[in-house]
Amino acid sequence: MNLSDVPQLKYIDADNFFLLSGPCAIEGEDMALRIAEKIVKITDDLQIPYIFKGSFKKANRSRIDSFTGIGDEKALKILKKVSDTFHIPTVTDIHEISDAAMAAEYVDVLQIPAFLVRQTDLVVAAAQTGKVINLKKGQFMSPEAMKHAVQKVKDSGNDKAWITDRGTMFGYQDMIVDFRGIPTMRQYAPTILDVTHSLQQPNQTSGVTGGRPDMIETIARAGIVNNVDGLFIETHFDPANAKSDGANMLHLDHLEGLLRHLVAIRKTVTAF
Fold first, then answer.
1. What pLDDT score was predicted for residue 208?
2. Name one GO molecular function term (predicted).
C-alpha cells in the first residue's frame, strides 16, 4: 500500500492504521474547522495518518425534505479551507459523473458511495481524475465482487484504489460486518472498515436512519484485530443535532479514548 499517493498525509511510516474521519455532511465552515482541529490534535499525538471526511452534498436521502447540503461549491470550498488550514488531505463522496471533475479540484480522495459502486460511468469518471478512489462496498455485494470495481479503476489508467466495507444488509433494518471479507478484499486493494455506517439501522418508519453508536468500539476493535488498513469513523460534537446520520455517529468527545485503545491493539497485533 502506498499512502504517499495522498498529498499532505502525515505519519505514513508510523506503522499505524490510517483514519478517514469527520462529519457526515458539511453543515458550515465553523463546524467543519472545529471538528478537524480536534481530530488533527488527536491524530498528531497518536501519529495516525489522517484524512478529513465530509460530504459536500447528500444525494441518498430517505425523504425529500431531508438535509442534502449547503450548496456544492460552498461546501467544497470549506473542504479546501480545512485542507489548507491544517495541512491535511480531504475526502468527499461523489454521486454523478459531473461531480468527479468538480470535486477533484478541491479534495484529494474521491469516494464512491456503496449504492453507486457498480455504476461504471461514475467509477470511470472518478478514476480519470487521477485522484485516489475510495470504493465503498455495496451493502448487497460480496467481498469477492469488489475486485471488479477495483479493476474498473485500474482499467481507466488509475492504480490508486481503496475498498471500504460498510457492512452488508441483514434483513430490512440492520447491517452486519462479515470480517471474513477483510482478507479477501485486501487481496485487491487497501481495505478500510467503515465503523459508523456499519452500525446504521436503515429503513425506519420515520424515514430517518437509526443506529447503534454504543457498538462503535466493538466493531472498530474487531477491524484492527483483523488487519484492516484504515478506519472510517464519522464524528460530530453534537450528534443529536447533526443534519445527517447523527444516530450512528461517534461523539467527538469520545474519539480520543477510542483511538488510544485502537493504537494499543494495533501495536499488539503487529508484534506477532
1. 57
2. 3-deoxy-8-phosphooctulonate synthase activity
Burial category of 163 from C-beta neighbours within 10 Å (exposed 0-12, middle 13-18, buried 19 and up) = buried
Q: For the residues 240-250, what does the mean pLDDT come to? A: 84
Q: Which three cell numbers stand for residue 140?
A: 448487497
Q: How far is CA 100 from the centre of its chain?
A: 17
Rounded Cα distance, 91 and 125, in Å:
16
Residue range 204-215, pLDDT digits in tens: 556 556 678 899
DSSP assignment of 97-136:
HHHHHHHHTT-SEEEE-GGGTT-HHHHHHHHTTTSEEEEE
Mean pLDDT across 237-264: 92
43: domain CATH number is 3.20.20.70
- CB–CB of 267/48 below 8 Å? no
How many folded domains does the chain comprise? Answer: 1
- With a CB cutoff of 8 Å and minimum separation 6, the contacts of 218 are none
Cα 104 to the center of its chain, rounded Å:
16
Which spans in the chain are helix H?
Answer: 29-46, 72-86, 97-104, 120-127, 146-155, 181-186, 216-225, 255-270
Residue with cell 462529519: 23
SS (H, E, C) 3-26: HHHCCCCCCCCCCCCEEEEECCEC
User: Any idea which of 8-12, 61-65, 203-207, 246-250 has the lowest mean pLDDT?
Assistant: 203-207
* Domain around 171: 3-270
The reported pTM is 0.94
Which of the pair, 175 or 190, is modelled with greater confidence?
190
**Biggest alpha carbon distance in the chain?**
51
